[in-house]
Amino acid sequence: MRLLPPRLLPPLAAALLLVAAGPVVAREVWHATRTLERGDILRPQDLEAMAPRRDNNAFIEAGQDLVGQEMRFRVRNGMPLRDRDVGEPLAVHSNDTVRVFWKSGGVTLEMEGRAMESGAMGEEIRVHNPGSNRTIRAVVVAEGTTEVRGAP
C-alpha cells in the first residue's frame, strides 16, 4: 500500500468533506426593489426574493408575507430586509391625541390623552393623562384609540 505525502493530506481531507456535505443551498430573503422609507406600506412590487451576499439570521425569509406591513426604518434599493425593519402598521403615533377607555363590569370611563409612543394594534403604549398629569399604560385597540386593561 502506498501512502500519500503529508503535504497532500489537508487539501484532500477538505475536498472529501465538501463532497460529503453536498451542494450548499442559499436561502432566499426579501430585498427592496426601491428605496423604502420609514412609514411606507409594503406592496408586492416593493419586494424581490434573492439569496443574500452574506447570510444573517435577522434577514426575513422570502416565504414570509410582508405585503401590508409598514416600514420602521429606511432600507436602500437592493438591500435585504431585517426583522426590525418592518412591522404591523401603526394605529397610534407618538404625540397624537388619543381616546382612552377603561371598562369594568358595567361601567365605562372615557378620557382624552396624549400618546407618548407609537404603537400598532394590540401593542401596549404609554399615554399621558392631562387631567391627573400622570402616565398610564394602555393597549392600542383601534386607530387613535386605546384601552386600559386592569386598574386605571
Helix content: under 10%
**Per DSSP, what share of the residues sits in E-state strands of 2 or more residues?**
25-35%
| Lateral arrangement of strands in the main beta sheet | 6-7-9-10-11
Major beta-sheet overview: 5 strands, mixed, barrel
What do we call the CATH homologous superfamily of the largest domain? Antifreeze-like/N-acetylneuraminic acid synthase C-terminal domain
Q: Which CATH architecture of the largest domain would you pick? A: Alpha-Beta Complex
- At the fold tier of CATH, the topology name of the largest domain is Type Iii Antifreeze Protein Isoform Hplc 12
What is the CATH class designation of the largest domain?
Alpha Beta
**How many discrete structural domains?**
2
Low-confidence regions: none
Overall geometric form: elongated
Give the strand tally.
11
What is the mean predicted local confidence, pLDDT?
Answer: 86
Q: Can you describe this structure?
A:
The protein is mostly beta strands and 152 residues long. The chain folds into two domains: 27-87, Antifreeze-like/N-acetylneuraminic acid synthase C-terminal domain (Type Iii Antifreeze Protein Isoform Hplc 12, Alpha-Beta Complex); 90-148, SH3 type barrels (Roll), CATH 2.30.30.760. 9% of the residues lie in helices and 35% in strands. It has one helix spanning 9-21, and strands at 29-32, 47-50, 70-71, 86-87, 90-92, 97-104, 107-115, 119-120, 124-129, 134-142, 145-148. The strands form four sheets. It has a five-stranded mixed β-barrel. A two-stranded antiparallel ribbon has the order 1-2. A two-stranded antiparallel ribbon has the order 3-4. A hairpin with a 2-residue loop joins strand 10 and strand 11 (145-148). The radius of gyration is 26 Å and the shape is elongated. The model has no long low-confidence stretch (mean pLDDT 86).
